[in-house]
Description:
The protein has one domain: TIM Barrel, CATH 3.20.20. It has twelve helices and eight strands. The radius of gyration is 19 Å and the shape is globular. It starts with 8 loop residues before the first helix and ends in a 6-residue tail after the last helix. An eight-stranded parallel sheet has the order 6-5-4-3-2-1-8-7. Helix 3 runs parallel beside helix 4 and helix 6 runs antiparallel to helix 12. The protein has 338 residues and is an alpha/beta fold.
Amino acid sequence: xxxxxxxxxxxxxLGRTLVMAVLNVTPDSFSDGGRFIDADVAVxxxxxxxxxxxxxxxxxxxxxxxxxxxxxxxxxxxxxxPVIGALAAxxxxxxxxxxxxxxxxxxxxAGAGLVxxxxxxxxxxxxxxxxxxxxxxxIAMHWRGHSADMDxxxxxxxxxxxxxxxxxxxxxxxxxxGVDLDRVVLDPGLGFAKTAVHNWRLLGGLAQLQxxxxxxxxxxxxxxxxxxxxxxxxxxxxVGRRDAATDAISALAAxxxxxxxxxxxxxGSRDAVAVASAWRAAQPAGTVPxxxxxDTAAGGDTAAGGATAGSGAASASEPAGSAAAHEAVATxxxxxxx
Length: 338
């Protein structure tokens, strides 16, 4: 298992997929908004998540559910800093889920050991420069716009190729700023400007995402596309009844060798990762287990419109790491059957 540089020592030696627990200190997140807005309640829940097997607790103070608006930076800081400080003091490995460099800086100073940015640096031009000042892992997610607008941005000709191309561009941008790419984890951004078909295609293409050369995080927990898959004539399955499907994705993603899964219900996914680890260990020598989750979207992944990501070779003048990223997109991502 390849871990990003800067990962806290207790985790850096683990040879399995990590389990990142979601802790939303918000009143309006899609799954548990409002349950953990009180700092003491949030800290108690995080301790329970760690007891259930969480390796990292991902603390967020701003909802990124579809349609959500922005909040003032001071409000985001007020929500997350007391929780991060208490958890870090207790020895919990914490990541800060934020798009703002100011919040990331304060969170790292309070004890956060990772930065999880759903915008990959696009929401705040100060994020990448800030990352050159610290030595913590950075999770860069695929992102096309803020929550209020993202459903309208789910337009692709070839979602796997375009997401890989846009993530490769994030790597180029990070390298150009001077960020050590060995600290970077990539996240395909399931549900962020993606339809259900897009999400399944990306899960089916985990090998191509991994070919970009960085560890991959998968965040499918309780998301709308699972509710749509499991729904009946009355509509999508309710959010609170999607954990078994989340566990299935955790097992398949771990069998494919992803770096981490980000989940609400920790115990089920930790068990799923254990099963996947045993499965991988039992594979014959030379076998690459779980090249990707079954491509349920093989019939086509096209939504109207969309831009096509470039994938040509990088020039000698481009930043370190960009040539490999370009080559991965050009050679490792086949055309999607349509």
